[in-house]
Write the structure tokens for this entry.
Amino acid sequence: MKILVCISHVPDTTSKINFTDNDSQFDTSGVQFVINPNDEFGLTRAMWFKEKQGASVDVVTVGGAEVEPTLRKALAIGADTAIRVDTPAVDGYQVAKQLSAVVKDGGYDLVIAGRESIDYNGGMVPGMVAAMTGASFVNTCISLEIEGDTATAIREIDGGKETSTATLPLVIGGQKGLVEESDLRIPNMRGIMMARKKPLNVVPATDASSETNTVSFSKPEPKGAVTLVEADNLDKLIDLLHNEAKAI
Amino acid sequence: MSVLVYTESENGSFKKTAYEVASYAKGVADMMGTDVAAISFNANDAGDLGTYGVNRLHNVSDSKLDKFNAAAYANAIAQAAKAEGAKVVVISSSADSRYLGSLVSVHLEAGYVSNVTELPSSTDPFTVKRTVFTNKAFSNTAITTDVKLVGLSKNAYGLKENATECAVQSFEPSLNDNDFSVTVQSVDKATDKVTIADAEVVVSAGRGMKGPENWGMIEELADVLGAATACSKPVSDLGWRPHGEHVGQTGKPVASNLYIAIGISGAIQHLAGINSSKVKVVINTDPEAPFFKAADYGVVGDAFEVVPALIDKLKAFKAANA
Ligand SMILES: Cc1cc2nc3c(=O)[nH]c(=O)nc-3n(C[C@H](O)[C@H](O)[C@H](O)COP(=O)(O)OP(=O)(O)OC[C@H]3O[C@@H](n4cnc5c(N)ncnc54)[C@H](O)[C@@H]3O)c2cc1C
Ligand SMILES: Nc1ncnc2c1ncn2[C@@H]1O[C@H](COP(=O)(O)O)[C@@H](O)[C@H]1O
């Protein structure tokens, strides 16, 4: 089985979010970048397939040279080959176009992407890749098993779970549940050394336009101070929630 | 022209989110000087769609589509958009709509923006405001394609009445085998519980509760308020509560009217997921807990005393206001 894991290179969850150039650009100064958490769950599940069922695992990121440390980390976790599509990521459509070209080229059976990137939260790349390559698609995937050319996937729905079967090739939008938090791997010294020798192929972008563009960013209004209520005066809290906040 | 909205139903009746997206579609249609068409699957009738400004409903009746099927639904929605000549298609932020959104986008070559919070600031260029960085910021995004696809954030626009007559037509999309490459085998959903996605009130608890055996009071408080229960990430990682309850940047987003956080410190990753909730209440022993900076109302106190007392008082309040 040939697996491709799509890795989005995103600011660490503790990052302060600021903008520059008249609020038109995300300010990356001082920001630590990581593998998108949803993709880390997917990568770890891919390693499971590799070790337990036999599979090759490639990772891909669309982006400039600055994403390479993130790809190296994925190699250190255990991926075989990394691919960087050499163009800045503009929007979900443009990224999906680039990824689809890689998918078609490599003839992958399974493409593991994340439910969403925690930076722009588009939640659109995996479905677009599925539609562009004609693969089956399961989103918000929390469990994935593969037997021959059939996958059994569980998806999180509002208020529950749904189990489905799908024929390969398959694209998933994955998240926590694919593996547990405790299954995530921190690259060890040996992994890091080996990662240096693994191929990181830089491929040129296929021509693709975008469909949306960011005009400007803004930040939410600062919030007012909290109203404190004494623990022995909960009637006051109920009164505030009822009459002031109109929330109960 | 028209604006097409996908109105979700369950067992034949429209969900509340269907009326919110319909209200929004009507707002967009007014800006563009056109009207609103809806598409649904196996709906019994037009429900209250007319009340929220929908002029016609294209209903697809097909027993093969009894269970949600992202690929087939997306294909049908795209065909309805083409039949209508729709320039704008509106969907919700439910798990199902997010699932089919990107497929619709590819079918229609329509630029797609999700997590939209307001009506477009301009329709030419078509520019919408959306949340980014898990609610830590907004982006004004222009869609440059001929047809536009908008995913509306939950509870961002609300219900707006605009009564009209809604005519119901049946719509028969032509679907193919490819649309059925994913087959739903079973759905496991607690029907007697309010879901986090639909809830007006969410009662959420963290590691301050000490252990899963103490969740009885959390469930009772949720019960009194008709609320859904939720939790912080460590609580689900520890297996105290199911994963589906984990909210935050790496869990579920919550956009309820009221969010009550009990024994949750208020880490940045937790707060990111609940920023779009309207009113936030925190109960925590530590007055320095970061949650107090993010909350509207706070009680500094021990959950094991405050929560039972709050349950009693709320019961009395409900009885008096019934
Ligand atoms: C990549 C990444 C992603 C993450 N994503 C998420 C996410 O999506 N969601 C999320 O929630 N977290 C997330 N986290 C974890 C986050 O950083 C915090 O660790 C977590 O939110 C803390 O959970 P907590 O508040 O329940 O526990 P703690 O931080 O242990 O806080 C417990 C709180 O309970 C209070 N308390 C103790 N006893 C009582 C009592 N008797 N009565 C009342 N209060 C009491 C304490 O004062 C304290 O404030 C993420 C972390 C990382 C690194
Ligand atoms: N620039 C990128 N390169 C590779 N994969 C990406 C990129 N952007 C997004 N993805 C994948 O698509 C998923 C969803 O991203 P998004 O649609 O941007 O929310 C991510 O979790 C990744 O798996």
Remarks:
- The first helix of chain A runs from residue 37 to 53.
- Chain A touches chain B through 81 residues (CB under 8 Å).
